Amino acid sequence: MKLSALTKVAAIGGIAALALTSCAANESGSGQASGGDAASSSLSGELVGAGASSQGSAQEAWTAGFQTANSDVTVNYEPSGSGAGRETFQQGASAFAGSDRAFKAEEIEAGPFEGCATGDIVEFPAYISPIAIIFNVEGVDSLKLDAPTVAKIFSGKVTKWNDQAIADQNPDAKLPDANINAVHRSDESGTTENFTDYLAAAAESDWTVGAIESWPAEFGGEGAQGTSGVVSAVTNGSNTIGYADASQAGELGTVEIKVGDEYVAYTPEAAAAVVDASPLEEGRTDHDLAIAVDRKSSEAGVYPIVLVSYLVGCAEYQDAANAELVKAYFSYIVSEEGQKVSAESAGSAPISNDLRSKVQVAIDAIK
After folding, report:
1. With contact defined as beta carbons under 8 Å apart, do 94 and 15 qualify?
2. Do the strands 96-99 and 306-314 form a parallel or antiparallel pair, or are they unpaired?
3. Are 260 and 300 in contact (CB under 8 A)?
């Protein structure tokens, strides 16, 4: 998709508006990026990225750590949403993108990637987190749901909290005779695509629209902008339910999901386990590490509603300065230290050593 000239300017302006925030992080951020202290760094310049709002807290932590070790670098990341981030990157308005899904093969083939010297990209999982189904129902502290029931709630087929499908799985809960207010993302969202990908795989008879980034209007419900918007709508509403990156769930109730014969609560460890058990997508280049997540896994302790959020860059940049900065920043993010600060600040699951080794090969190929 093309951005209009006005939209492109707005995107750049929005990203640039974060400069003061990033500079503050540069001055006060804790932790050292791998490779030494700021005095020994030869890197300088401004690095612009945009995309997944799910990565927001992690990007703040990564920016602080990287800028501490590279005091002449400013990193600006605009959490504008996955779809907007991919468009901004494609139009050359940012050097990298964060996305809650990988580019589709046909999107890569169609292009364009205006900041890249070729049509090839590097993309890899950098942020792994469970997607929590969050709820706010007075008098209800915990909920257990299977995939078909979740699908029926969000498609508008189950409309009451005391519906038998919910009550049978929660015999001890005091479910009200009240309408369900289901909240979804109003913007084009990779979180939505990951959530609906789970429903399409685990409840295919009840969720027939597949994995989608834009919510179908015919399903109704309340739309909210971004992760923070969904969390706010669920928090401030009544008898609400929604989905969001688990790191943003706060004090809201969260649903245990049926996996096999058990109900599993989300944890970073359970999210990481399903990713490691899933294969890479076929038909990709060596440096395009898209994961085909096994949403139907019935292994004990696996949480299948997982968000695998990617970083995307050019395999070869038109601007050599961008190539140098992206390569260094990406390397920091996937390092043990980078993954640790993300886990501490955002509750994400660190990528495994095996995945890290594959990712680093891809990053090293950037030029």
Report:
1. yes
2. antiparallel
3. yes
Tokens of 120: 């090839």
The domain at 5-128+285-290+309-364 falls in which architecture?
A: 3-Layer(aba) Sandwich (3.40)
Q: Is 75 helix (H, G, I), strand (E, B) or coil?
A: strand
Residue 39's pLDDT band, with cuts at 50, 70 and 90, is low
pLDDT of 14 higher than 60: no
Q: List the chain domain ranges.
A: 5-128+285-290+309-364, 130-273
Domains 5-128+285-290+309-364 and 130-273 share a fold: yes
Q: What homologous superfamily is domain 130-273 in, according to CATH?
A: Periplasmic binding protein-like II (3.40.190.10)
Is the pLDDT confidence value at 28 over 60? no
User: Backbone phi, then psi, for 39, in 5-degree steps?
Assistant: -65, -30
Per-residue pLDDT reduced to its tens digit, 133-159: 999 999 999 999 999 999 999 999 999
Which own/partner pairs from 264-269 qualify as long-range (CB within 8 Å, at least 24 positions apart)?
264/301, 264/302, 264/303, 265/303, 266/130, 266/131, 266/132, 266/303, 266/305, 267/130, 267/303, 268/128, 268/129, 268/130, 268/343, 268/347, 268/348, 268/349, 268/350, 269/301, 269/349
User: pLDDT digit string (tens) for 95-146?
Assistant: 999 998 999 999 999 999 999 999 999 999 999 989 999 999 999 999 999 9
Q: Which residue bears the tokens 């020994």?
A: 40
Retrieve residue 320's tokens.
């050599």
- The rounded distance, in Å, linking the Cα atoms of 180 and 257 is 18
Tokens found for residue 123: 């993309």
For residue 141, what are its two tokens? 């502290």
Residue 7 predicted with pLDDT over 90: no
Selection from 205, 143, 137 nearest residue 169 by Cα: 143
